[in-house]
Amino acid sequence: MSSRLLPAARPPRDSGGEARTGVRTAVALVAFLLFAVVFPLEVHGAQALYFSNTDFLIRYAVVLYAAVKLGLLLWQTDIRPVAGVFWIFVYTGMGLAPLAQLTTGRSTALAIQVDEVALTMASLLTLLGCVCFDLGYHLRLRRRELEPKLRFRTLRSMDVLRVFSVAAVVAALVYIVQVGGLSVFFLSRQETSQALDAISPDSGQALRAIISAAGSVGCLTALIFYLHVWRTRDRALAAVDGLLLAALVVMNIVVNNPISNSRYWTLAVLFGLALPLIRGRKGLFNAAVAGGVIASIVIFPLSDITRRAAGQGTPVNLESMWIIIATKDYDQFTMLANTLAYTANHGLSWGMQALGPLLFWVPRVVWPDKPLDTGVEVGQWMNSVNLNLSAPLWAEAWINFGLPGLILVFAALGLLARRLDSGFRAEILSKGSVGYLGISIFAGYLFILLRGSLLQSMGRLMILVLSVLILTAVTNRRERLQS
């Protein structure tokens, strides 16, 4: 009796997965064409004076590099928030805005100290920093040995979250009282800053940074953790939790509102609240990245209406979107060029300038020779009336150690970004990790770190790190499975 061999049944095709892949590919391609072709052509069309093709191509190289990386982020299946923030900042602040300044012939008032050599050097150093970040991000170190020892963070307990929330509310109340009451937070950023400076004028920015950080970051972190617990419902919420959650919402509306806070801090707050809701939803993450790029071009330059007190704001020139970008707020590229000119005149600090951010908590009355904010230092050398100037991470690295410092800083940032982005892997999110909550806040805060200066950003960064460490505990895979 003969028998016929039946062919093995083919596994069913995942039509849903193929459809999602096709959508991601289409979105990535459209975004790349928009960022790498359409916008640069529009900027080129805004030409108001002669510029060489070489100058245009040098600045366009940064735009193209960032556009490629953004397109890849949209195409890949992983969610990588830290890398996403980095490339959004590079694309607009260090790529498209300098390109618009070249073609329109317009710039911020800070450009008076900048020559063409410094501008070209700034573009090349920006590109070098991007390459170093990329290399650090994709570097693999003993991957096979590290994977079995995968560790992630879990919430210590609801009691710890409750105690921390009470402390955060108290710190916010102290912040409100010190500044002068609730009404100050709904006037303007200028008036809130002046009220905070009046607390202890002789202490410089150290006391201001600590007070504002303790009053704002703690409340934000506690609210994000409570929203996670409420959303996942992996722990029961008691009546006291409802009261604390309501108090945290009110405190955040007061101390973290966009009226009295900088736009970069507002971005950090929005990212910190949005990314935990996105979690593993790649479509929502892609929308946030693409929307973030568009918003940085269209909305961000026009969103500073609460910066000055009433009647003191500068009228917005609506002649051209590219003129607005060139002249309004993106001074990071120009300040990098000014820092290059400053170091050509004064030399490198060889690490002395970095002592200011590292020891930011030391009052200036105790340490009279404490280094100034890098933006202030360069601004004084420029004889600038306005000393509220940025100092992008490229400038901070260069003023301390020059070219080697820039290479090491951005390679280290790439390594850190990869490490943090790994917290959004599906296998970690599915095991109850809450470390991604701190990553969410840090991803938004990276806007501030990249924009600079570091001295101004250290207060909130320190409170952010301490808050996450207090609320979470490290566990490894085996311990988690046993529990």
Q: What value does the average pLDDT take?
A: 83
Assign an overall shape.
globular
Radius of gyration: 24 Å
**How much of the residues is beta strand, in percent?**
under 5%
Q: Low-confidence runs (pLDDT<50, min 5 residues)?
A: 1-13, 144-148
Strand tally, please?
2
Strand order of the largest sheet: 1-2
Alpha-carbon distance between the two ends: 57 Å
Largest sheet: 2 strands, antiparallel
- Helix and strand content put the structural class at mainly alpha
Number of helical elements: 20
Helix fraction, binned, reads: 55-70%
Would you list the SSEs in sequence order as H and E? HHHHHEHHHHHHHHHHHHHHEH
Describe the structure.
There is one protein chain. With 483 residues, the protein is mainly alpha-helical. It has a domain of 178 residues. The protein has 20 helices and two strands. A two-stranded antiparallel ribbon has the order 1-2. It is globular, with a radius of gyration of 24 Å. The N terminus is likely disordered.
Question: Secondary-structure blueprint of this entry?
Answer:
Blueprint: H1 15-45, H2 53-75, H3 81-104, H4 116-138, H5 143-146, E1 151-155, H6 158-179, H7 189-197, H8 205-232, H9 239-255, H10 263-278, H11 282-298, H12 321-327, H13 332-346, H14 355-358, H15 374-381, H16 393-421, H17 426-429, H18 435-451, H19 454-471, E2 472-476, H20 477-482
Antiparallel strand pairs: 1-2
Helix pairs in contact: 1-2, 1-3, 2-3, 2-4, 3-11, 3-12, 3-18, 4-13, 4-16, 6-8, 6-9, 8-9, 8-10, 8-19, 10-18, 13-16, 16-18, 18-19
Key structural traits:
single chain; mainly alpha; 483 residues
